[in-house]
Design a protein that fits this description.
The protein has a 5-stranded mixed sheet, with no helix packed on it. By secondary structure, it is of the alpha+beta class. The chain starts with 6 loop residues before the first strand and ends with a helix. The chain has helices spanning 93-109, 113-133, and strands spanning 7-13, 16-23, 25-30, 33-37, 44-48, 51-56, 61-66, 69-74, 77-82, 85-86. The chain contains 2 helices and 10 strands, in the order ββββββββββαα.
Length: 134
Amino acid sequence: MADKKSLLLRIITPDRIFYEGQAEMVEFNTTEGEIGILPGHIPLTVILKPGILRIHEAEAEKEAALHAGFAEILPDSVKILAEIVEWPEEIDEDRAEAAKDRAQERLRNKASETDVARAETALQRAVARIEVLR
């Protein structure tokens, strides 16, 4: 059970429980901007946007690339349902760089609104992967 200085964080993807443990703070991107969650936060549900997920544990900070999903925030817990979350050691940097280059090329060629939206999302995912490696 969480004490007043931590909250229970559960991160679930379609194929695994990515993380389950106590965190002092959790940070991630939403469609409304970056958010930091501390114990006692007001209840909230948010849509996730690609970016870096930061988990502040009592002794360390962990980072992962978070791609999309939803988060349920309660005063004593955060549950993230994500399409994809990756630890740095799970990311192939060459592949991420190639995806970034492809997305940038698609943005330069702007065939349609749908293509632009997909390319922007692909670029955000690639950048999140690359940034978490640095």
